[in-house]
Amino acid sequence: MLGFLIRRLLQSILVLMLVSMLVFMGIYVVGDPTAMMIPDNVTAETRAAMIASLGLDKHPLLQYLDFAQRLLHGSLGRSFATGLPVEELIASRFPATLELACAAMVLATVVGLPLGLVAAVKPESWVGRAITACSSLGFSVPTFWVGLVLIMVFAVSLGWLPSNGRGPTQSLLGVQVSFLSWEGLRYMILPACNLALFNAAMIIRLTRSSGGEVMLMDYIRFARAKGLNERRVIGVHLLKNILIPIITVMGINFGGIIAFSVVTETIFGWPGMGKLLIDSINALDRPVVLGYLMFVVVIYLTINFVVDLMYSWLDPRVTLVEAKA
Amino acid sequence: MSAVIDGNAAVRPVSSPMRELWRDFISSRMACIGLASFALVFVLSLLAPWIAPQNPYDMQQLSVLDARLPPGAQSGDGLMTFWLGSDEQGRDMVSAILYGLRISVFVGLLCTLLAFVVGTTLGLLAAYFGGAVDSFIMRLTDAQLSFPSILIALIFLALFGKGVDKIVIALVLVQWTFYARTVRSSAMVELRKEYVEAARGLKYSHLRIMFRHVLPNCMPPLLVVATLQVAIAIGLEATLSFLGLGLPITEPSLGLLVANGYAYMLSGNYWISMFPGLALVWAVLSINTVADRLSDLLNPRLRK
């Protein structure tokens, strides 16, 4: 176990180093930072002095070391557009994204798991077929287009729900959240549904396929022969055995939700990290784009790590020492 | 596809894996509908310039007076009917969708083809040579697959800017890994078979063994991946273009058409976004139906 933790930590550090090098190249090699930071109308001497003060006259390797040192101190540089430190910008946007992603995950599970179970238990019935067809459709419709349709139906035509922004927030342990008030929740419904759709389809499909395999097992037949009611057979015998792959996929998909929140946040004007990313890309604000990348990489490494730990905890047959990542 | 197998006369199996797959494939009605439906999408996009009622990017054919007409409305000069409405520049949506479909399908197929070539080559190299080559290529796919593809594509486009070439590179960059992994795992099995030993005994070159002997026998699973990836590439390109990072306005794909209509949707002009989106769903859904059938056929656990 300890060996696994150490190896994993080393691997994560390696990935972070590689990404930070790519990030660095992204700022200093692909893009020309002097063009962004130094005005055109200065004299050659001022220009040279500014380049020196920014450390841009040094060897690229030394520049990278400077950059890495700042990174280790938690500094991602300053935004070209606003002059604010990138880490502050991201920190101010992260709670909104996290809240939306959690809401979408919960929604996808609450909808997807029961429907998937029905489709697994009764694959040939019309309900089962309809659920399977819906999940195939859920895979094929692009997220951004569903978002527009949701806005069109529920915000424009029916006028039931707001379509833009986050609405009022409350402070919970120092973090601003929307889900504590009905008004805040109303703003969250449409974006959360939009973000949940793909994952609900994924959970339905996974539950259906793994549930379908388990249904043929002897222990299910045996449980039924014992005279257990259907609810217990499905709720305990079936569910327990398919939960592990589902939880694993859900964990990995959480990263996907955070990435796809870029699309949903743009459509619904949700003030999260994803919208920050798109706005920064459009404003050519490289430090923010690359700061976002570094931050997201850390999130993914953490998620993968937690999923692996959870996997071994849920399934005693898995030992992490043997697992070669 | 069949040419590859036929050229492989020395090791032709009794029934080729691809031909067997085709026979099983057409026994499902849904799959045939999906295939026919995609064939239709393909033909429509191929013929777009000849069957579209107008050239939607020839400004002289457009009239601002026809802007934002609802579906079924007549143009001001009474010469044409906008069956799916018109956009803010008086452009016929049917024509815009046909041209958009053409670009989306073209980009999707091109990316798939390139990613297929790159990924398959690297995967075959990994399986064939093993050792350091193998672990380098596979660690690369591991690292890349732990990040969502949309994120990698987004960052790439953010750094290098937009354009058809950029988006093709971005999509190939995120998709090659799937082919590399698939071909590697089936090639590992194939490499242990007698025919490979025989080919080695005949002192055939590495390249010849890899591409003419091993590759044809790895085709079925690769085909599933490729089919699925066409749909994913089309969807991803549409998403990136919708975000304004994919194709430039001069090459408006379906994603960009949807984005254009976004602003007018709030005032009730639903058709400008709605119909391009439906066309996209149609294309992706028909490809996915085909891919579903293929993966069912190749899933050993479901095979009788």
Describe the structure in your own words:
The complex is a heterodimer of chains A (325) and B (304). Chain A has helices spanning 2-30, 33-37, 44-53, 60-72, 86-121, 126-140, 143-157, 182-215, 218-225, 230-268, 273-282, 286-314, and strands at residues 170-172, 175-177. With 325 residues, chain A is an all-alpha fold. Chain A is built from twelve helices and two strands; from the N terminus they run αααααααββααααα. In chain A, helix 9 crosses helix 10 (230-268) and helix 11 (273-282) runs antiparallel to helix 12 (286-314). The mean pLDDT of chain A is 79. Chain A is globular, with a radius of gyration of 24 Å. In chain A, a hairpin with a 2-residue loop joins strand 1 and strand 2 (175-177). Chain A has two domains: 2-72, no CATH class; 89-166 and 192-323, MetI-like (MetI-like fold). With 304 residues, chain B is mainly alpha-helical. Chain B has a single domain (41-298), classed as MetI-like (MetI-like fold, Orthogonal Bundle). Chain B has eleven helices and two strands, in the order H-H-H-E-E-H-H-H-H-H-H-H-H. Chain B has helices at 2-6, 17-25, 29-51, 93-129, 131-145, 149-160, 164-190, 194-201, 206-242, 254-265, 271-298; strands spanning 73-74, 81-82. Chain B has a two-stranded antiparallel sheet. The longest helix of chain B is centred in the middle third of the chain and has 37 residues, at 93-129. Chain B is elongated. Residues 1-9 of chain B have low confidence and may be disordered. The interface between A and B is large, with 43 and 40 residues.
